[in-house]
Design brief:
Elements (H helix, E strand, L loop, with lengths): L4 E6 L2 E6 L11 E7 L9 E13 L2 E9 L7 E10 L2 E6 L4 E6 L7 E4 L8 E13 L4 E9 L9 E4 L3 E2 L19 E8 L2 E5 L23 E4 L6 E6 L6 E7 L5 E8 L2 E6 L6 E9 L2 E10 L1
Antiparallel strand pairs: 1-2, 2-15, 3-4, 3-14, 4-5, 5-6, 6-7, 7-8, 9-10, 10-11, 11-12, 12-13, 14-15, 16-17, 17-20, 18-19, 18-21, 21-22
Length: about 300
């Protein structure tokens, strides 16, 4: 039987609502198209799809696999991470085995929420500034929408979480809009599908997919960078084995997202991290070639 589709416009977003709209986020019939819209310095906007796979057990806990595809017809899927639901909270796990809170739909206006999504730039505290609903007429139901602000109280850092759909930054990049870093990726949800039908389309973009033009599929660069030992108790070295640039920039941020140092080194090369130069705690760093962020990770000063 053909689905009935209705359209609602709210806060600049276009939502096509199906009579069989599913409020459960984890559902193998759903697809998300997300764009990396950071184009400064000649960067090229591209998009990718996400979907859920089967369940698996990691450290005696049940997770659902998350897959990613870079082709428009979604024929080549690769494992990107895992998700786990506990009550109304959703925890994401990346392939480096880092786990953190990505969503919490059991919140109230005024609540502060600590988000440590491993797919986002750094942990931070977000504030729930508003909660409203979208009425789904065929199902005679409402869907919760949560408005959040992060460390920077500016309107363009506003992010929305929509029940059953996730974040306006895309499925796995919840918190990205609230925790932007200069020169880093900026993720935006383009479209959302259920049972191959369009449920949501971002009106700020004319299409639901942007191919990677003139460049190969994003290279897996983790093997080019390493920081050892980590945690840092005395001195550590960030080793750069990347040889496709003459110089590399390394930006280091504290847990509040404030930049504490910037270094430019020849590549390949290394950067000495001295514990005495930092207060104890967690720090995040990005490795960049020009305006392109190649790698990001964290280290701990003990």
């Amino acid at each position: 039987m053909k689905k009935l589709i209705f359209t609602f416009v709210f806060a600049g977003f276009l939502l096509y609502v199906s009579a069989q709209y599913n409020t459960e986020l984890i559902d193998t019939t759903k697809r998300w198209s997300t764009a990396d819209t950071y184009t400064a310095g000649g960067g090229i906007m591209y998009s990718f799809f996400n979907k859920f796979g089967d369940d698996t057990i990691i450290n005696n806990q049940s997770y659902t696999k998350i897959y990613r595809a870079f082709d428009e017809f979604m024929t080549e899927w690769e494992l990107q991470g895992f998700i786990r639901k506990v009550d109304q909270k959703y925890y994401l796990r990346n392939l480096a085995n880092e786990v953190g809170l990505a969503y919490d739909f059991d919140v109230n206006i005024g609540d502060n929420l600590y988000i440590d999504n491993p797919f986002t730039f750094y942990p931070f505290e977000a504030n729930v500034v508003d909660i409203d609903s979208v009425f789904i007429e065929p199902a005679n139901q409402y869907r919760k929408r949560i408005k959040l602000l992060g460390p920077y109280p500016y309107p363009y850092y506003t992010e929305y979480w929509i029940e059953g759909m996730g974040s306006t930054a895309g499925l796995i990049h919840s918190g990205c809009i609230m925790s932007q870093l200069t020169g880093s990726a900026m993720f935006t949800l383009l479209c959302y599908y259920e049972d191959d039908e369009l449920i949501y389309k971002n009106p700020n973009f004319p299409v639901c997919f942007y191919p990677i033009v003139g460049t190969p599929k994003p290279e897996k660069l983790e093997s080019y960078f390493s920081l050892n030992p980590n945690p840092v108790t005395d001195a550590s070295y960030l080793t750069i084995r990347y040889d496709k640039a003459k110089y590399i920039k390394i930006h280091i941020f504290n847990s509040l997202g404030e930049q504490v140092s910037e270094n430019k080194i020849q590549a390949p090369g290394s950067l000495n991290i001295n514990a005495s130069d930092y207060s104890k705690g967690v720090y995040f760093y990005t490795v960049s070639k020009g305006n392109q962020v190649l790698f990001r990770d964290k280290f701990i000063i003990q």
